[in-house]
Design brief:
single chain, 172 residues, 7 helices
Length: 172
């Protein structure tokens, strides 16, 4: 005869066997024993860590107790002379003619001078910068023996001579 089957047609899972008190106690003791011995070995701090070393590192293992080999003076000695580094100038040293050419071709200076000619007012910082650059141009021109004033004086002298010649010749 056939045995009656359940409606769903699947078997029920059997219950897991419950552990006895003795088994639970033994597992707890094992966990405690494993936990108790999970730290570093004694002396591992002084001897270095042996777990992290590779074969190349073990061959050249350095004693961690040895520090720097630089000598330290133990008495009052002369103070060591420290060399002071000269600050490097922003621009390399240029000849006066090259520096004058740079200043004459400076776009910022040209733009600010154009603004001044148009009647605009400059900020104090811009004005001081323009004054410094113009003073430097004057210094360089004096070093080189050049002057814009000479050209103007020559023209004025030519005009005066022409006027004198007119007066002398006929007064026209």
């Amino acid at each position: 005869m056939k045995k009656p089957t359940s409606a769903s047609g699947t078997k029920r899972p059997t219950k897991a066997r419950r552990k006895t008190r003795e088994e639970l106690n033994q597992e707890a003791r094992d966990r405690k024993r494993a936990k108790k011995h999970s730290g570093h070995a004694s002396g591992s701090r002084a001897n270095g860590s042996s777990a992290s070393g590779s074969s190349a590192q073990n061959g050249k293992q350095k004693d961690p107790r040895i520090g720097s080999k630089t000598p330290i003076p133990l008495g009052v000695t002369d103070t060591p002379v420290t060399k002071q580094h000269k600050p490097k100038s922003e621009k390399p040293m240029l000849s006066p003619q090259a520096e004058l050419d740079l200043l004459e071709n400076d776009e910022r200076l040209d733009a600010l001078l154009e603004r001044l000619e148009e009647g605009e007012s400059l900020t104090a910082e811009e004005q001081s910068w323009v004054d410094a650059k113009l003073d430097r141009i004057d210094e360089l021109m004096q070093k080189l023996g050049l002057s814009y004033d000479d050209d103007e004086e020559d023209e004025e002298e030519d005009e005066k001579q022409e006027d004198m010649m007119r007066l002398l010749k006929g007064g026209n």
